[in-house]
Amino acid sequence: MDAVTAEAKAEDRFSDMRRIPGGVFVMGSDSHYPEEAPSHRAAVDAFWIDRAPVTNRQFREFVKATGHVTFAEKVPKAEDYPGALPHMLYAGSLVFTPPAKQVSTKNWSQWWSFLRGANWRRPYGPKSNMNGLWDHPVVHLAYADAAAYAQWAGKDLPTEAEWEFAARAGLEGAEFSWGDEFTPGGVHMANTWQGIFPAENLLTDGFARTSPVGAFPPNAYDVVDMIGNVWEWTADWWSEKHQADAAKACCIPQNPRGGAEADSFDNCTPEIRIARKVLKGGSHLCAPNYCRRYRPAARHAEPVDTSTSHVGFRCVIRG
Q1: Range of the domain at 166
Q2: pTM of whole model > 0.85?
């Protein structure tokens, strides 16, 4: 590769990215879910962020170039899941499957199904395909899959602070990425759920599941789909709450990294300790009656070995 070609390849990394200015902002919220609190000041340096989540088309290029096999396409190893019955160890992923009638929102297993053969190529199960979905966000990726793509692209995954700063787009204190009204003038600003989750989907925004990236208006930084459509992986380990403001203004955290690996385990079973990362942005499954997390401050813990039909990612370049 000659110098000119190498330079062109390096510059190509910035295509379809937007420059985000550095600055100090109020991160988190004291008005919603407890894990968003306390609101606190944080600072980030300037960086570049993908204008949209990584699409199926883009991820296909990565797979063609590297031969990468995603977590959902691999049969789990028995030693990684002690106590699991052999017939339960098969390649697959979690797919949203709406119940036939309204059910309690306290039991997520009523609408999530672990489908054999579901993966990024076949997002709704083994009989599905990519027809009409190439410009939708890629889904069914575990954290390692997103990190591998970012490394191949010469980029990184965003920290929670970088992600939230980009999503807020300078609207200090606004509830949403576009202001304080969820549907200003009756216009849907993001792909979310309309109706009573999980059985009633009114589809007034036009989409039952994911939408093509850019189907909704960009924020003030000209970045799209920061809210709704798919949750997005960040590089930060999960913590149950934010750290409070430093006592002195001179001590505002600069480029903070959240959580510590030792404190980020999902202890739902005593035999298995699975580290969790922070997801941001909410998804097309977020509804007023359930998971009201279509806001920049919202956050969610996701085990690193989990892939689902509503989680994707985007990348950053720092400096």
Answers
A1: 16-53+141-318
A2: yes
